[in-house]
Amino acid sequence: MSDYGVVTEPRTVRFERVLPGPIDRVWAYLTESDKRAKWLASGPMELRASGRFELKFNQADYAAIIEPVPERFKHHGGEVEVGIITQCDPPRLLAFTWREGPVDSEVIFELTPRGRDVSLVLTHHRLGNRAEMVSVASGWHTLLEILVEHLNGCEPRWIWSVRAAVEAEYEKRIAPD
Question: Of 3.30.365.10, 3.30.530.20, 3.90.199.10, 3.30.420.40, which CATH number belongs to 6-173?
Answer without folding.
Answer: 3.30.530.20
